[in-house]
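[RESIDUES AND BACKBONE]
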Amino acid sequence: MDASTPDTSAMNTPSTSVAPSVAGDVPKTLKLSLAVRKNLRDEWETKIPNLEAQLTSVLGIPWKISIDPPYIYTFAQDSFAKQSTGQMIAQYVEEALTGLTTFTSTHGPPGTAALNTLCPTHTLTLSPSTNPNINYSGTEIKTHSSGMLHVVFAPAYLGTNIGDATLDLADTINAAGVAAAGPDGATALDSNFNAKAGIRRDYDPSINAVQERMQTLLATPVLTLEPNFSTNFATLAAYATTTTTPPSSATTYPLPHDWQSRLGEHTLAYFAAFADTLDRLGFAGDGLMQEGWREAVERGVVGVRVVGRLGRGGYSECVVEGGVCWVQVTPGAWTVNVGDVGGDVLDVL
């Protein structure tokens, strides 16, 4: 067996056996009572084949379930966890399946592919978490160790709020993707699931309408919108990691807490606001202004660019470089006064 692949052959062992633990420092052997062993057999072990089949169906490739009931039982504190251990474990897996079904429906093939890639063993397991941010239940992907999708519980709250485990699955996948990418993962758009999902959700379906409106206002035969996603993401991410307190400048602010997942939405807003400004300035139907645009922006490209500083101050500015009209904004002013973008466009044409 490859050293990178954990040995799960001892998992899902019959409840009458004493199964080894795969994590933690709690006792690794435990003889379960007959009542608990019967509950595990009737309410959990008999359901495993069907649950694995459902898991495989949802995720499109063969998945398995690998859970160590005697080990899980060592965390049981209330009557449900102690007396109905099999039913409880089955409920964790059933709720995970519901969450995975919702996730794949929401995020489509890209979401499914991301999960399958980040969990190379294609295994679902149940384990305690040492993450202090897990209050009751959640999910974890340990890309550098088990390669499994872990449904996790706070050690003191086994069996509590089981249905909430997959609520933050997208964030779990995002964190695993960033971690798997190594030192540069935090600033790389390609490794950020939430940012890419947001672009697919908020930007891609709506940008064509904005582009068509802008092209009509400018009466130009060719117009391309350049979102500059990868470079802008890297610049914003670097700013986010170095800004721990709100700066004092009147034009510098911390990034919104959800800036990654809303990158597509905010970029779309900059383009839409620029189109509004063109309309407000009177480009529609004005041949002189339209000709001036075409002469200056000869490549027919409008882009959004995050830069270290603005040449004229304020929250945003327009610059024309190499036949491209750039709407520029600093990281500290990202999403601030978006409706004002392009107000200086006549000055740079």
About this structure: Residues 1-10, 14-28 have pLDDT under 50 and may be disordered. DSSP finds twelve helices and eight strands in the chain. The radius of gyration is 26 Å.
